[in-house]
């Protein structure tokens, strides 16, 4: 009896425990962000901040350059993702729908490119950007982020394009559409979920990117949020409340998008072998 | 299964990676103008961007690694060839080998933990009822979605010496000496925190994918196994495991590649400290190059790191392409 009770309940119990382990850091970030200073520097941690405060967020908002960096991060991320979607969609259409010499080679090329060790290439990138006299600018960042997410964009969209039944396109062409027209009128609307899932990954990559901006943009006005967040000690000292508020603000856009698009996002990411 | 093998019809995979092919000049027959050159035209922007922004830095990296490029040469824009001296210096230094060994150990520990725990969590997901599964999936997705740098900052706070919740918990559990423990004061403890962070961030990918893979196993196989008298363990080893083995193999490689270059977490958590003791290869190259202004030397270390990663990637793609057979 005892044994069978255990046998019936252990998976559920373990699931709850694991849930707690995985969620706790995220919970701790948000809860600390809302805590009063006294509840943060307390010998016994306060697990439920009932008398919450927005003070920490106020500190983060009013930190030097915060809004500039938000602007930079958003600009770089959105532009990189849109550009890679634009040129990636063209490439993925060719790879999914057309027969031509070297198609396989192109696919493998993009597969290799997806694994590119960007973190290890920053020295060469620094020297290239320096020679082009473009240090402390958002332009090289945008361009490199675009290429960083491009292979994934192409390979994932290729799957989504291939999934659109060929007959739809053909019947549109029978009805008098040219091939580009058939693409825009028939395939493109059906690709919306694919475009969304793909851009989510691009968004995460560009939003998170750290080593490149660290080496390229020393000018605070031209940095992005990850860099700002890692230097929180110089900004906030030992003020963990403000630091966690800043982390929360940084993480929130991605967490929201992820939770809303959860199923689609997970499907998209798993099909592309990508670490979020 | 795991990787970029989406469903598209084509010839079977041959294996070894293929380098960039330059598009052949399209023949333009009158009447069908554009039809044969269209795929190349569509590919040109992507190929161009990849070649310029990815190919060029790779080549540049190789070129610099054969140069003396210190502040003097950098400022005066001098090109001073150094032959293999950067490589000789790197490969001859004891530090390089120590960092390499450290990277290998670091990567191994991470990947073993990620794969074992990720697999177990994935199998648990497959076993759970619907409500519990949704709950656990939600937790996993949340950890997965957490941006790297935000995660790192949170772990610094969790493991903070004063008022950190981990130290408090350890002290409560009877480990009094941990009450004021400085996690970032020694090599082993700093690495422990980084490893926990990376494992926490990486398990969701493995677990969710593995769970997805198990859902594709047909129920009949299990029924057949149990009719043959197979117990839980036997049906795991004879049905589940063979099915998920290719996935596990490919994912292990992906994780090795990802962890090996996990510069962000290591740098952000303690700047490779204390005393440069937690520098792994990518970070070592970073510190030698831009940090100490020995760009040639840094590039040589980078290139050696890239070479290791390329071998791993080639092997990974080979396995994936083999599995994909007719899918490419």
UniProtKB/TrEMBL annotation, chain A:
PANTHER family of this UniProt entry?
Answer: INNER MEMBRANE ABC TRANSPORTER PERMEASE PROTEIN YCJP (PTHR32243:SF18), MALTOSE TRANSPORT SYSTEM PERMEASE-RELATED (PTHR32243)
Residue ranges crossing the lipid bilayer per the database entry: 12-30, 74-95, 107-129, 141-161, 182-207, 240-261
Question: Is-annotated flag, keyword Transmembrane?
Answer: yes
Q: Which residues form the ABC transmembrane type-1 domain?
A: 70-261
Q: What is this protein called?
A: Carbohydrate ABC transporter permease
- Give UniProt keywords alphabetically: Cell membrane, Membrane, Transmembrane, Transmembrane helix, Transport
Q: Which Gene3D superfamilies match?
A: MetI-like
The way this protein sits in the membrane is described as:
Multi-pass membrane protein
Q: Which InterPro entries match?
A: BP-dep_ABC_trans_perm (IPR050901), MetI-like (IPR000515), MetI-like_sf (IPR035906)
The family line of this record is: Belongs to the binding-protein-dependent transport system permease family.
What are the subcellular locations of this protein?
Cell membrane
Organism superkingdom: Bacteria
Keyword Membrane (UniProt): yes
Its main subcellular localisation, reduced to a broad class, is membrane
